[in-house]
């Protein structure tokens, strides 16, 4: 029985009518990769590198980071890995970085905003990543969404941020002598979703951070327990932003992943697939349920379901579609 379950987990998430959704795991260190693969992950769709900084009392050196990224690449053996550069600020504070106190840290200097202000943090990280690419990505490795290593920038709000980050990344890649590495951005601020078509012109892929996108679209602090029941990523306003993101990406042939919590919810995963998302990355424990649900679904039906969901008036009405004739 255990063997049958393991075989089932290893099956791809291919809908009944033959559409394959890529599934990855959110994993922060090489030690977690084995479990994620066993649960059915095809790669790592989100490595949150702030944990390298949070788990220790000081800033990891470029060499320390190089070792960790190399370890991830080795553990994955050529399967795709998306590494997100440092996303500090908001709920992720790092005492030893001694960042200034802010009244509203979720609206302050976090993610890309911090990276652009702190080359002392961004540049060693990018050098470590490109060194790992140079040393561990074979010349004949796949490119595009199957690339063994991709780099992703957090908390993007504007096109100039993308251009500036890209310029720094390309300079460092040249200095290191690394092969091309896809460079993507997180879509987790409504401005970025609304401008997805412009964003897509300047980067290689998107990953939608539904945790923050929900927080910023609904103006609900993601840590506020009192409001937690209302902070539903299936709110039609959030779904419409995701739909805009997929349309903007499609216009430029870019691929779209989702790495926020809703990707691990089987019904949420169905809606995301129907909205046009190509890849779902989640906590390893959620993989089996999501894959099973997608395999039982039909993409034509999921697209219709997603369209109906966007037309609902509130999140409860969207969730009600799950029982009302949604896919099994
Ligand atoms: C998100 O915001 O959905 C996301 C995946 O990033 P994090 O949870 O690390 O902010
Ligand atoms: Mg986020």
UniProtKB/TrEMBL annotation:
Highest taxon in the source lineage: Bacteria
Cellular location(s): Cytoplasm
Region (Disordered), start-end ranges: 1-18
Family assignment from sequence similarity: Belongs to the PEP-utilizing enzyme family.
Protein name per UniProt: phosphoenolpyruvate--protein phosphotransferase
Source species of the chain: Methylobacterium hispanicum
Full protein segment contained here: 521 to 848 of 848
């Amino acid at each position: 029985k255990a063997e049958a379950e393991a075989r089932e987990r290893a099956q791809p998430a291919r809908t009944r009518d033959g559409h394959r959704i890529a599934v990855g795991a959110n994993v922060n260190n090489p030690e977690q990769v084995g479990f994620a693969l066993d649960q059915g992950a095809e790669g790592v769709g989100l490595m949150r590198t702030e944990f390298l900084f949070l788990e220790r009392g000081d800033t990891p050196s470029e060499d320390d980071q190089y070792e960790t990224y190399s370890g991830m690449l080795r553990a994955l053996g050529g399967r795709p890995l998306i590494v997100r550069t440092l996303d500090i600020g908001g709920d992720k504070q790092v005492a030893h970085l001694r960042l200034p106190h802010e009244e509203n840290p979720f609206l302050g200097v976090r993610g890309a905003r911090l990276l652009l202000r702190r080359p002392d943090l961004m540049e060693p990280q990018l050098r470590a990543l490109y060194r790992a690419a140079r040393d561990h990505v074979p010349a004949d490795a796949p490119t595009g969404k199957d690339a063994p290593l991709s780099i992703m920038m957090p908390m993007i709000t504007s096109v100039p941020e993308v251009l500036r980050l890209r310029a720094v990344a390309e300079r460092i890649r040249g200095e290191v002598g690394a092969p091309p590495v896809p460079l993507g951005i997180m879509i987790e601020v409504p401005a970025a979703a609304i401008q997805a078509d412009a964003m897509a012109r300047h980067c290689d892929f998107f990953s939608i951070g539904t945790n923050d996108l929900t927080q910023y679209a609904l103006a609900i602090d993601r840590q506020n327990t009192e409001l937690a029941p209302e902070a539903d990523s299936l709110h039609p306003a959030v779904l419409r932003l995701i739909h805009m993101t997929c349309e903007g990406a499609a216009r430029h042939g870019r691929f779209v992943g989702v790495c926020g919590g809703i990707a691990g919810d089987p019904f949420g995963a169905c809606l995301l697939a129907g909205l046009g998302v190509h890849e779902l990355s989640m906590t390893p424990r959620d993989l089996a349920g999501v894959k099973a649900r997608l395999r039982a679904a039909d993409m034509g039906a999921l697209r219709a379901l997603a369209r109906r969901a966007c037309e609902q008036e509130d999140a409860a009405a969207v969730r009600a579609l799950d029982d009302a004739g949604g896919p099994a």
